[in-house]
Write a structure and sequence with these properties.
The complex is a heterodimer of chains A (323) and B (352). Chain A has a domain of 98 residues. Helices cover 32% and strands 24% of the residues of chain A. The longest helix of chain A is centred in the middle third of the chain and has 18 residues. With 352 residues, chain B is α/β, with parallel strands linked by helices. In chain B, 32% of the residues lie in helices and 20% in strands. In chain B, α4 crosses α5. The longest helix of chain B is centred in the middle third of the chain and has 18 residues. Chain B is globular and about 70 Å long. The chains are: A alpha/beta (323), B alpha/beta (352).
């Protein structure tokens, strides 16, 4: 283990929100690793903690959030030991993020050229004319036609797909080590989706950049990720290489998610729903948070600690009775 | 006779070049469209013809901005078409202004489920009031135990427990809100239900439940569906027939199974190949669309709408607009150079 040097290590991370109605246990003992150049997908229903986890890595959690245990080690250094200023320096330079709705993530009253320039100015040694040249280069890098003209455009003048390209240009402008893409293509057309995902994939390959792709679309994760993390109400329930995970899901929840995804051959009768809802994270929770919805439920599933097994090398599952 | 027959339907929106003040000024002086100096027209729906039989489910797919939502709203008579006919149960309702249609007897026959379950519910209405609203306005019912019974019956039909009747939208989950939207739409027992991306805002687990519910309701109530979606894998679960739309025009139409197996229009193939699949054997060779879509503002009558992005374009595609032409298997395709059987098999082979 000593020889390996993963880009990002998340270790036993627990995070809670203090709200007026109680403490929301949003993440509990979340652990995973990402290698350089690896694309890791994070899948799960809304409310499973995918975004909360990525915000925690970026250090942009809500003020009500409190990390109660664990560490996040990025490039060999614990992020929790960094000062606010140091973190600010890292964000956008070594750690970058693309958000779900490009139109709300971009500043509506600044031209996209200006917004790119801002980031380049902040995070590089380019000055004066170089900044503009670099910005134009980035815009053509993400295949924006006629970059000179689009440079002066405001976000509302561009389509959703074009805005997302601008977001990618901004995110990769400083050649980050890790890119977190939070539902980068949700709401875009499938034809545009494919183009945007190819862009992210190419950018990652060129720079040997690690990528976290947060998505609720299993198909998308299957096509673009090397490894997949399945989350369910704040727990990582399964982690495996993409091929393994889909060929032989071991956690009942993963199997259910796959069964609920429409594909090109399944009939409606074969499309199964997942019974029940995500549990209330403010309540007293059993060790396995999926137990209430699980068809393979047994009484000892409620007992702590939640078992974590490695069924094959690199295939981790948090279930007492894996499939 | 078909339940719904759309003939050469056209919807254009004027584009104003000048500022807002100038527009107000011009309209005050009662100037006509030409005098007002409109820069042109956005052709949202451009000469669309198709029909839906009683009890049939038809899917309408295409990317955002292709006019599929406008088409749905025209048929639901929320908007007035520029020209063309909408024959519903044998009567042309296309000419009835939307403002008058809402009081007509056909209003209750055509209902709609909207895309965003949150946006389409009044935040100040309880579930009961949302579902009771169409019954009071168009169903000739009055407040009382009878209304209560009917609302409970409808909620039961869509799988909402009675305890949800007193809840407001913000107290409901996405799936529950979708159910409320469906209960409202079926309250008047419409013969045609238009569903505008009913599941695109939902998680797969909830989507599966709602799709099962829609299939069940269709069988029980014998409605026809016009199912608008961008996801062909969802459309194929509910619809026997599918229409593929590109920039205001239907470019391909036919039985769903046939179109998925053997698309002839290059756009349909690109659309199919872009769907990400879990199963590696389902993946077809990626057709990446390059180029920008053409502008929908005053498009040429002669150039194929897909010309700017088409991998198979030829000079002819710029000179003559292709028309829908029938092919074996019940497919109609508007393309001068449609894909042959051979090419579709080859791409599948290449991947496996």
């Amino acid at each position: 283990m000593e020889s390996r040097n993963p880009l990002l290590v998340v270790e036993e991370l627990s995070l809670e929100f203090r709200t007026r109605t109680g403490v929301v246990k949003a993440l509990e003992n979340v652990s995973f690793e990402i290698e350089k150049g690896q694309t890791v997908g994070v899948v799960g229903e809304s409310g499973s903690g995918k975004s909360v986890m990525s915000y925690a890595i970026m250090g942009i959690s809500d003020p009500a959030a409190r990390i109660t245990s664990g560490r996040i080690v990025f490039g060999g250094i614990s992020l929790f030991e960094k000062s606010r200023q140091q973190l600010q320096e890292m964000r956008g330079r070594e750690l970058s993020m693309i958000f779900q709705s490009p139109r709300t993530a971009l500043n509506p009253i600044r031209t996209i050229g200006r917004q790119l320039e801002d980031v380049i100015y902040r995070h590089s040694s380019f000055r004066g004319r170089q900044i503009r040249e670099r910005a134009l280069e980035l815009l053509s890098r993400v295949h924006i036609p006629d970059p000179e003209k689009r440079y002066r455009a405001y976000p509302f003048e561009l389509s959703g797909g074009m805005c997302q390209r601008v977001m990618i240009a901004i995110a990769i402008s400083s050649n980050p080590w890790l890119l977190i893409a939070d539902e980068p293509v949700t709401g875009l057309d499938v034809t545009t989706q494919a183009v945007i995902m190819d862009l992210i994939k190419d950018a990652a390959r060129e720079r040997n950049m690690g990528t976290i792709l947060i998505t609720h679309d299993l198909g998308l994760a299957a096509e673009y990720c090397d490894r997949i993390i399945v989350m369910h109400s704040g727990h990582v329930v399964e982690v495996a290489d993409t091929e393994h995970l889909f060929m032989r899901p071991r956690h009942p929840y993963t199997a259910k998610l796959i069964g609920a995804t429409p594909n090109a051959s399944r009939d409606l009768a074969e499309l199964s729903a997942i019974p029940g809802n995500l549990p209330d994270l403010r309540a007293e929770l059993p060790a396995c948070r999926y137990s209430e919805r699980c068809e393979h439920f047994a009484q000892d599933c409620l007992e702590s600690p939640l078992p974590r097994l490695e069924t094959e090398t690199g295939h981790h599952v948090a279930c007492r009775y894996p499939l | 006779m078909a339940l719904l027959q759309i003939v050469d339907l056209l919807k254009k929106f004027p584009i104003h070049p000048s500022g807002a003040m100038e527009r107000v000024w011009n309209s005050l002086w009662g100037m006509g469209a030409d005098e007002r100096g409109e820069a042109g027209y956005l052709h949202a729906v451009d000469g669309v013809t198709f029909s839906i039989e009683a009890g049939e489910s038809v899917g309408l797919v295409g990317e955002s901005g292709c006019g599929k939502s406008t088409l749905a709203r025209l048929i639901a008579r929320l908007q007035d078409p520029t020209s063309g006919a909408i024959a519903f149960e044998g009567r042309n309702i296309g000419g009835v202004p939307a403002s008058r249609f809402i009081q007509g007897e056909k209003r209750r026959k055509i209902q709609m489920v909207f895309q965003d379950p949150t946006e389409s519910l009044n935040p100040g209405f309880t579930t009961f009031r949302v579902v009771a609203d169409p019954l009071l306005r168009l169903g000739g019912m009055r407040s009382g135990p009878e209304l209560r019974k009917r609302v409970e019956e409808l909620c039961n039909l869509v799988g909402l427990a009675p305890e949800f009747l007193t809840r407001y939208p913000h107290q409901l989950s996405g799936g529950q809100k979708a159910r409320v939207g469906i209960a409202r739409a079926i309250a008047l027992e419409p013969t045609l239900l238009i569903l505008d991306e009913p599941t695109s805002a939902l998680d797969v687990s909830v989507q599966a439940v709602i799709l099962h519910l829609l299939e069940d309701l269709k069988n029980r109530l014998g409605m026809s569906y016009l199912f608008v979606s961008h996801d062909l894998n969802v459309v194929r679960l509910l619809c026997q027939r599918v229409l593929v739309m590109y920039l205001g025009k239907i470019v391909e139409a036919g039985p769903t199974r046939e179109i998925l197996r053997h698309p002839r229009h290059p756009y349909t193939r690109a659309l199919l190949s872009a769907i990400p699949a879990i199963n590696t054997t389902e993946r077809t060779e990626r057709v990446r669309l390059t180029g920008e879509p053409m502008s929908p503002i005053d498009p040429s009558k002669h150039v194929c709408r897909f010309y700017s992005r088409c991998p198979r374009r030829e000079e002819m595609c710029r000179q003559e607009m292709p028309r829908l032409t029938p092919y074996p298997g019940g497919i109609e395709t508007a393309c001068h150079f449609p894909l042959g059987e051979q090419e579709n098999t080859e791409t599948r082979m290449a991947v496996s």
